[in-house]
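User: Modeling request: complex.
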Amino acid sequence: MSKVVYIFGDDISTDAIYPGRYMATVLPTETPQFCFADYTELNKKLVSKEYPAGSVLIGGNNFGCGSSREQAASTILGHGLVVIAKNYARIFLQNAINLGLNLITCPDIEAEMGDEIELKSDKVINKTKGKEFSTIPLPAARMAIVEAGGLVPYTRKKVIEKYK
Amino acid sequence: MGMTIVEKILAKAAGKASVKPGDVLEPEVNVAMSHENAALVINQFNEVFQGTGIEPKVWDPSRIAIIFDHRVPAESSKTATNQKKIRNFVKANGISKFHDIRSDEGGICHQILAEYGYIRPGYVVVGTDSHTTTHGAFGAFSFGIGATEMASVWSLGTILNVEVPETIKVVVNGKFKSNVYPKDLILHLIGKISAQGANFKVIEFHGEAIKNMPMSGRLVLCNMSVEAGATSGIVPGDEETSRYLKEAGVKDKIENVLPDADAKYCQIIEIDANSLEPQIALPHTVDNVKPISQVDKVKIDQIVIGSCTNGRLDDLEIAAGILKGKKVAEDTRMLIFPASWSIYKKAMKQGLLEIFSDSGAIIMNPGCGCCLGVHQGALGDGEVALSTTNRNFKGRMGNPKGEVYLCSPATAAASAVTGYITSPEKGVN
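Assistant: Request completed. Predicted assembly structure:
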């Protein structure tokens, strides 16, 4: 069970998740420090590890729109955050899948700050509100990448086959 | 059943007779482009080969393009070190389409791919940049991917698990009024269908206004298609495509891929070009678009003309036409970023740079500059920019306490003279 620690509106861009001015920092081990850097309070709490892994961010429509920067996915992954949004922009969603981060698509999600959330394979349960919301699974072809642990191990297998 | 352009391209690239939306494919890639974020691609590429006992080797060094543009010359030691790492990788792997920080070959990646004739109709193009949609202007299927996905492409030469997208057909008939430009059209379209209106879909452009549009304008439309969430924008290849590529030095025969008459579209949108006036995207989303007549008098601190969207020669010509003999308003600063060094030098020969500098504008070196707020031209707290770039997200121009409005080069130039958002139609005398 995890707590909701932030609620976002629609069209949260990758500039909001990981501002462009930090793009010279690329390694997944280094990107977490700039997670939501312009949301000063949220960033402070993330960096000071006030929010445990599994803490939940709630997003609206088109979460992760904008740039293709993979830092936006690795920075969230680095904090072990769970994202539950109504839907996602394409490149951000694919980047998350490629890094093995399973973003939860939940079109009807209702949640407030501090709500206790439980994730099931096909639904999100808001324990505080006593409500359940069904989730939309990833297409099988994309899920295969998440299940392989991300695109690096998935591609590695193909490379081994190719050079056999 | 008939196919759209992208369906045809993907069928061919995956070795199939036909495909339909939702099919999962592994298409071959013709051009794979990266910029400074190749540093992360290299990291992920080496990870892929980790523990396999196989020497890391790119699938085809002639199909990889790497262009330094995001932070040129380097703004920090970190960037310079990354650029050095990339340069070494380029040499070690024999990557031929490499454009360093040099005035005889450099510029913004999307302009370089275009002006060096690297793209052909029917190509599958991927780039670690969301504005890779730009190259749909050549009738190619061109889309942005992340660094790990690019590492996979470098390893295999294909893109894994691609779902065939649905296509939206946008038909633009009529003629543009004077002082209305392709930028106004694409802003209008994004405002109409929203920032997520084309998510996971392709926008195919048709109609008289597109047919009559030069390549530079088609590049603007496809560049900003991603701001409606589109996987790619695409314009059917025609005589204009061939003309541009020939001028870019392409010698091989150009074969266009055109949609079938009975191709299936998920949505058809019609726009009358005659009905458009200059458009403005207001802070902080690109779909917050209004015709300029409905925009209040907004004081502008910084005007920006440039970027992969609107830093081409015709953009500079339009701006210079308006600025000639005039001054940038007091308390307003103006930055001009040509999209490439070749454009910069043409603008110099034509005397455009002189007009800009006489007016008080600052001419910057080609690159992504302040568009994404990593390098020069940051806004101060509470400052407002009017820019010909493609994004106005909060924090985009280096400061979450600043505001960015988007417009065409004509509107930007007219506004530079007054210091307020000003329609080029109203004149500036």
